[in-house]
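quick one before i forget lol
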Amino acid sequence: MMNCIADIEFVDIKLPKKVYEKMERVVVKLFIDLGIDTYPIDPINIIKKLGYVLRKYSDLPVYEQLKLRRKELDATSCYDPELKTFVICYDDTKNHGRIRFTLMHELGHILLGHKEESELARKMANYFAAYALAPSPIIYLYDCQDANELATEFFVTEKCATYCFRRYTNWLEFGGRIKNYEEALQKMFERANNVEERGSVS
């Protein structure tokens, strides 16, 4: 079982470049496979399209709700052998931005194949969630000028928007190169939203 306390702590994250790219590839493949071509994305719809079961804390027996809230868990996920699929339970009393991040975080654990909790798994799921909610090439496509605009366009929390905009500005400073696996994603969004093609920065 994977447990989630939704908190974005990216400042000290240091992972090999290939690990970031692996996570980004998983997100891009997911969106292309499911035809996710508009923002803000709908995590609940994505999870349902994958055939996973989604349960709100408020729908669980009271004793289970109390146990989860006592642990201050925003979500939990596990594979159910009887249902033959993954089940994600989440705290539906949180604000929408936090719920969206939490659900993508749990989805990250599942799609990245995490089997047990660890600091590394949590940080990877955080990066997966933030990239899925607001990838730098799509931020560029929408021409967001600051974190506030990003938060509005992509419907994320202020904390998530601050991180994503910092990641985006770093990306721009290093040339804004759109990776080969991101090109298909960007073109799909351009076609679906009639957005003028911008291409890479460099």
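fyi The CA atoms of residues 1 and 78 lie 5 Å apart.
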